[in-house]
Design a protein that fits this description.
Layout (H helix, E strand, L loop, with lengths): L7 E7 L10 H16 L8 E5 L12 H8 L6 E5 L6 H13 L6 E8 L5 E2 L2 E2 L19 H16 L3 H15 L14 H6 L2 E3 L2 E2 L8 E9 L1 H4 L7 E9 L18 H14 L8 E3 L7 H9 L7 H5 L18 H5 L5 H12 L11 E5 L6 E7 L5
Parallel strand pairs: 2-3, 2-4, 11-12
Antiparallel strand pairs: 1-9, 1-10, 4-9, 5-6, 7-8, 10-13, 12-13
Helix pairs in contact: 1-2
Amino acid sequence: MDLRNKACIVGIGSTEFTRNCGRSEIHMAVDATMGACEDAGLEPERIDGISRFGTAGQTATEFVTDTDVARCLGIRNLRFFVESPWGGGACCATVMQAAMAVATGTADYVLCFRSIRAATGTVRYGRPTRFPIDAHWSYSMPFGLLTPTSWVAMFTRRWMYETGATKEQLGHLAIVTRENACRNPRAVYYGRPLTMEEYLRSPMLCDPFCLHDTCIENDGCVALIVTTPDRAKDLKQKPAYITAAAEATSWDSYCMTSFYREEIGIPEMEEAGKELWKRSGLTPKDMDVVQFYDAFTSLVPMQMEVLGFVKKGEGGAFLEGGDRIRPTGELPINTSGSMLSEAYIHGMNMITEGVRQIRGTSTTQIKDVSRVLCTGGLGVPTSALILSKEQAS
C-alpha cells in the first residue's frame, strides 16, 4: 500500500529506562501512553486503535493486552486492534499496521507500544513467567546454541570470515553509539563513555561478541500515536510523516536460527529494503540519518550492505575509526545511543528517536534532517520504515 501523505506520528512517550522499574508491564504501558497523549495534545479516550507486539517466536515478551490498556485509559471502544509478532522484527510493523488503519479510515488514532521487563523478568498473575521454546530451536540448542547471542554470533563469524571485517571495526560502532548515549539523559549509559581498550577487554560472551557487542537488558516502555495528516493539524506537534513501510520474511525463515539457507545472513532485511525503496521512490542516498536495529554490533554493517548503503563486503570497513557514522559523518546512525547504549525496547525507542530527529529535538541532532530510516529486528521476519519532515510531493 502506498502510505505517502496518508499517515503520520504525532505523539511519543516513554517511561524511564532502568534495571528495576518497580512496576508491572501494564503500569509502564499506561505511563508511556499518557506521555504520548500529552506530547500530542490528545485525550487518551480518543484513541480507537491499538497496534502492539504479539508473542510468536519471541524469547522475551510481555503480557499487556489491548483491552488492558483500553480499560486503564478509559477507551470506550477499540475499532481496530492487531498484533505483530517476532520481537524486534515487529517494531516498524506495528507502525505500518497503524498507518494502514488510519489511511483506510478503520481507526482515527492508533496507539503503538512496547512494554518489557527484560531486566527484572516478565510478570504475569503476580509471578515471573518463562516463555516456551519453539520446536525449531531443538535443531540447534542441543549443540550449544542456546541464546540469541550464540545464534547471531554464529552467522556473524561467518560474515566476518567472508568479508574480512574485524572486531576492532565492530568496536568503533559500540564506541560511537556510546558517545551518542552520553549526550542523552534517558540512556542507561548516559555519562559513561567507552574506550577501545575497555571494549576489547570486556568479558567474552560468545565469539566474536564481548559484553559491549550486545544490547542492554532493561525495563521500560515506549509508546507512539499514529493518525492522518489532516487530524494532525489540530494537535500540538509537527508530525513525522510515514513515507513508506515494509515487512518481509525471505525463504526458509526461522526465529534467529535460519542456518540451512544457501546464504546465512539477514535476507529478510534485504527484501524489506527492496520494498521500501520501491514504495517510497527513494534510495539510501536520500536518508539523512538512520536508526539501525542493533541488538548486536555486527547487524549494523550487515544492514548497510543488504540495504545498499555500501557494497556487500564493505560494511565493516565503513565503520573503521567511527568517523563516517558519527553525527558529522556521511551516514550518522543511532543518535540516541540505540539499543547498545540507550535502552532495549525492541526497537521502539529508535523509532521515537527518528521522530525527534524529524522534529529537531534529539540530544544528538543532525543538521537539516528531512528523512530518517528506521529498521526492525534481524534474524527474524522483519520490518522497516521511512519518516519524513514534509509530505511527499
